[in-house]
Structure formats: structure tokens, C-alpha cells
Amino acid sequence: VLTLSAATVRERLSRLHSDPSFRPYIHNPRRLKMVIYFHCAYNRKKILSESKWRCSTLDLLSTGKKEFDKRCKIGMDLTTGFDTVKMLQKELNLTNTEIRTTLNQHSHWNRIPVMTVFTTLEYLRQAGIQQSQIIDCLQVLLYPTKDVEKCLQLIETSPEVDCCRDSNGKVRPELLLHLVMYFLERPYHFTGNGIWG
To answer: From which residue to which does any coiled coil extend (predicted)?
Structure first.
């Protein structure tokens, strides 16, 4: 990065911050690789999107051409979870061990793009869900935002959850995301396949 001019670094960082597809990587300790290999990463992101790849990682976007071609040829569309864990560490102030211990309980967590986790986290925050509730039910972040949103709407009116309501008729906050998980997974017999929608 020291071989680039200050103006180039500033411009690339600005573009990375403004592009929504790169936002989950902003707090990654290896984010300077995105500055160094900016054009390469940007082009690869387009290629992977066109090829319907879901799990592009910072490492994949900035690796050498030979390695990138090899991984694309194999077609192994999954992640080690490094980018997801680093993003959650920064966003939720949790340790690597706490995050991995919780997410490893879900059999498909390493097949979920960091962007899905990031957008669901942002949606829950905008919906007024407290950070402690999210941490208590961390696996809900693996599910697509639209599915989580549908379940939250369903819970508001469903008589099935009347036993979980307080005296004001609102679902108790500590149970809300657990109920979302219940409604997400119930049609799939609690196998974890609800993440595919």
C-alpha cells in the first residue's frame, strides 16, 4: 500500500465505503488488500455475481489470478467464516470463540455470504431489536432479511405466540428472535435448511 499515492488510497477507500457490496469488509483487518487490489477485486466481484456465486470472500477477491481461477473451476462456493466472524466481532463486540461456538451449531453457516449476515444485522437494528437480543440468538443472522422480516410480521399477529406476550400484548423481547427462528425452521423440520428460503 505504501507504493500507492495518498490520493489513490483515499479514492479507493472512499469507493469501498460507498459500495454496499464491500461494506461488510470495511472492518476486516485485511481490508488494505482491497485497496491494493482494488480493480482486480471489483472485477472479480462482478464475475462472481454473474456466475451466481454467493460466498465471495476478501481472500478470494484479492488472491492471485492462478488461485482465483482454480477456485472458480472447482466451484466450491463456501467460506471459512473468517470475514463473517471479523465483521461480527467489530459490530457486536464478541470474541472469535463466542461467535464460532454459536455459529458452528448451524450445519450450513459456512455457506452463508457475509453480505447476508450483514444486511440481516442492519435490518434487525433498524427494526429496533437490541444488541443483547441479537447476541442471544446469533444464528438468526444467517437467514435472508426478507424471511426474517416476514416472520417478525407473522409474530405480531399470530395467536400461536399468545403465551409469549406480556400484559400489553407485545411479544417479550427476550423471546422475539427465538420465535423468528422457530417460524423460519418449522417448515423444514428444524434441519437448518430454512436458510435457503
So the answer is: none
Residues 184/151, Cβ–Cβ less than 8 Å: yes
Separation CA 61–CA 57 (nearest Å): 6
pLDDT band for position 197 (cuts 50, 70, 90): low
In the chain, where are the structural domains located? 6-74, 82-196
Whether the pLDDT of residue 79 is over 80: the answer is: no
Mean pLDDT on 143-152:
95
Q: Is the pLDDT of residue 76 over 70?
A: no
CA distance 100 to 159: 35
| Helical (H) or strand (E) element with 57 | none
The H or E element that residue 161 is part of is: none
Burial class of residue 24 (count of CB atoms within 10 Å of its CB; 0-12, 13-18, 19+): buried
Gyration radius (Cα) of the chain, Å:
19
CA-based diameter of the chain, in Å?
63
- Residue 32 φ then ψ, to 5°: -65, -20
Q: Which residue from 152, 157, 159 is spatially nearest to 179, judged by alpha carbons?
A: 152
Please check whether residue 183 is in contact with residue 157, taking contact to mean a CB–CB distance below 8 angstroms: no
159-164: Cβ within 8 A, 24+ apart: none
